[in-house]
Design goal:
Chain lengths: 464, 248
């Protein structure tokens, strides 16, 4: 709790001097897509998939049902970069300034025994990762998506693009066309990993959109917790992050996917995250969103098998000039499925948050249980929060609970804490950390600490 | 030289004048009992001294030693040695009492230029105090959330115990308090008093106030101090009640 007292600098706003080895000129065309595929030395099926994605990207309009995306200029973005040459990557050599970047982010040493296996993404390519030997022995695969496409083409081609198709939405289509990096995780039948798999992502090359693609397959009866963290240096040119995450939860498997992201405030963060959950399976999304100019993110679960469950917790923090449009979707296709959604948002110093949620229950899905709770906290009069819940329930035997609250940090609460010696911003931080506690306690410890630190910086007004 | 000096203090809330021409002096180690009927302005005075922004000082001065308190923010007043035990402490969901206490304690140390204490050392410090006040079981719970009236009062006392104020204003600490807790708090107040702390104790109950052996007794009515005397005043209040006493 004494993190309230620690450093007041935005420690992630540095920009080191790594020269990307390949960096494409700005703009996107069919040729760019082919060039990316060529640079990656891909097989025909992946090249075809990219080109299909490109066609859909060109044809589809920008989503018009939410915040405006008109500030996005696709022709000014770069779509591919790699920080070091392949041979170096393959021999396990990591340039010292890349290492330094990770050190400054506190990555390699953060609670090492807790993290155990970790892969970190630098620009568009995985530069290193370590995987515990015993997991490998049990048949677990955890590598970069690029590597998986080459080394495990059978599994990848079987599942890739099945949960989020090339034509799902404009940004998913773009990702399909130009994706690079991201993680691939395969957990064999009945293998239960008791420690989380962890990766860090980081946007580095100026003006570079990061389009990572993650695919997780949890076979029947398996369990995995995947943790991903993001911080970004501050840029003055608009940047785009458009990722796709696909997760397949086989019968009675359990997947937890934890993300804490902190984008610099010029980034458009537009991510499609979806899980398919079979009979008796459990999917848990824990999603924390800081920073960015605009985030649109709605982790989803398709509950396709009897008794499938989804837990979706999200946290969004919006400061000055920022908009967090976050929420979740649960699609109940089978009987006895349940979804439990908890969304918390904080708008401060004039920031704007909105909850956008969709719940669908198919006509044949009986005895579904749905619980949605969204709480918004406003720290001042300039900040704003909205709620857009949609419920489309086609089966009358559905048990639904919905609760939404908007709270403003009260003057009396602040005064009480100030009377104990805390400044107004320290008091606000404290109230906010209380507010997010139900989500913070679900995070791995070092993430929870980082979260508190970020909250303190944000409430202090020193980020932005 | 008195160490707390309130001189000709007048206070408004919005357009309403709620305190008029308050004068009061207090020396280290002294206890002042502030009594008066409901709505007479006792809590307003307490909140004003701590710096509640809802109350506006229109006239007068408050000094602690040589410090002009009125220019300070509430947290600076706290740092200067003020403490207010609230009549109605606020609750904070998601904030563990233990974590809160440690933050408040370390915050005080750091702002005084000292090193914060470790989790372990704080644990050693807080445990015996919490046991004395019968709070050990609830330190894990969220601060004041679903606490009984008495538990909230004891939590206020625990904060006072770790912050060790120079001037503590205790606003109706007795309501909802059982007899054992009352004695525990009284013991704490006496200890702090021996270390030089001054107290303003607000209550309706003369019997309770008598237990503190106050050096001064003040009666407030309609935003003014109408009687200023020693503890013999408590006996008079008992005999006559406020109404008859104020007429006499």
């Amino acid at each position: 709790m004494d993190t309230y007292l620690t450093n007041k600098q935005y420690k992630y706003g540095f920009h080191d001097k790594v020269k990307p080895y390949y960096i494409l000129r700005p703009g996107l065309s069919k040729k760019t897509v082919e060039e990316i595929s060529h640079l990656k030395n891909e097989l025909a099926w992946m090249r075809q998939s990219r080109l299909l994605g490109y066609d859909f990207f060109v044809k589809r309009p920008l989503p018009d049902w939410g915040p405006s995306l008109r500030g996005l200029n696709f022709s000014k973005l770069r779509y591919y970069a790699t920080p070091l040459d392949k041979a170096a990557a393959e021999s396990g050599y990591i340039p010292s300034n890349v290492k330094k970047t990770f050190e400054r982010l506190g990555i390699p040493s953060v609670e090492v025994d807790f993290l155990t296996g970790s892969g970190a993404q630098y620009d568009s390519e995985m530069v290193y990762h370590a995987l515990k030997k015993d997991w490998q022995g049990r048949g677990v695969i955890f590598c970069s998506m690029d590597e998986a496409v080459k080394k495990h083409p059978d599994i990848v081609s079987k599942y890739y693009g099945t949960i989020v198709t090339a034509n799902d939405n404009k940004l998913a289509a773009l990702n399909t066309a130009v994706w690079s990096g991201g993680s691939f995780v395969y957990i064999p039948r009945n293998v239960k990993l008791d420690k989380p798999l962890q990766t860090y992502f980081r946007l580095n090359a100026r003006n570079l959109g990061q389009f990572e693609r993650t695919l997780i397959i949890a076979e029947e009866g398996s369990e995995v917790h995947y943790v991903e963290g993001c911080t970004a240096p501050v840029y003055n040119v608009d940047s785009l992050h458009a990722a796709v995450v696909e997760i397949i939860v086989k019968p009675y498997a359990r997947v937890r996917y934890t993300t804490v992201q902190n984008w610099s405030n010029n980034v458009y963060n537009l991510v499609t995250k979806r899980a398919f959950v079979a009979e008796g399976g459990v999917m848990e999304w824990i999603d924390g969103n800081f920073g960015s100019q605009l985030t649109m993110k709605y982790p989803s679960a398709i509950l396709a098998g009897r008794g499938a469950k989804a837990e979706i917790m999200s946290l969004a923090v919006a400061g000055p000039g920022q908009q967090q449009d976050a929420g979740s979707k649960a699609i109940h296709l089978a009987s006895d499925t349940s979804s439990n959604i908890l969304s918390k948002s904080i708008a401060h110093h004039g920031g704007r948050t909105s909850y956008r949620g969709l719940i669908k229950v198919a006509p044949g899905a009986k005895n579904c249980k749905i619980k949605v709770k969204c709480d918004a906290l406003l720290t001042d009069n300039k900040s704003q929060s909205d709620t857009y819940p949609t419920m489309d329930i086609k089966n009358s035997r559905t048990q639904t609970e919905h609760e939404a609250t908007v709270t403003r940090v009260g003057e009396e609460q602040l005064f009480y804490l100030q009377s104990r010696g805390l400044s107004e911003s320290e008091a606000t931080s404290m109230i906010v950390s209380g507010f997010i506690e139900p989500i913070a306690r679900e995070l791995p410890q070092e993430f929870a600490i980082e979260l508190n630190r970020l909250i303190n910086l944000e409430m202090d007004g020193s980020v932005g | 030289m008195p160490f707390l000096r309130i001189k000709n203090l007048s206070v408004s809330a919005g357009r309403l004048k709620i305190l008029t021409n308050i004068n009061l002096n207090l020396a280290p180690g002294q206890i002042l009992a502030l009594v008066g009927p409901n709505g007479s302005g006792k809590s307003t005075l307490a909140q004003t001294l701590m710096g509640n922004p809802s109350y506006r000082v229109t006239h007068g001065s408050v000094t602690l030693g040589r410090k002009n308190i009125l220019k300070l923010k509430p947290e600076q007043r706290a740092q200067a040695g003020f403490f207010l035990a609230f009549q109605n402490p606020l609750s904070f969901s998601g904030l563990s009492s233990m974590g809160y206490l440690r933050t408040v304690y370390n915050n005080r140390l750091v702002k005084a230029g000292l090193q914060p204490v470790s989790l372990l050392d704080f644990d050693k410090l807080i445990k015996p105090l919490a046991v004395d006040l019968g709070l050990s079981a609830i330190l894990k719970r969220d601060l004041n959330e679903d606490f009984s009236g008495g538990e909230k009062k004891r939590m206020e006392a625990l904060q006072m115990a770790i912050l060790r104020p120079k001037l503590a204003i205790i606003d109706e600490i007795d309501s909802g308090l059982d007899i054992d807790s009352f004695w525990a708090i009284k013991t704490l107040i006496n200890r702090l008093k021996r270390q030089g702390a001054a107290f303003i104790i607000i209550s309706h109950y003369t019997k309770l106030l008598r237990a503190f052996k106050p050096d001064k007794v003040l009666i407030m009515s309609q935003g003014e101090i109408v009687k200023n005397s020693d503890s013999s005043l408590l006996t008079k209040i008992d005999r006559l009640g406020f109404k008859r006493l104020l007429k006499s």
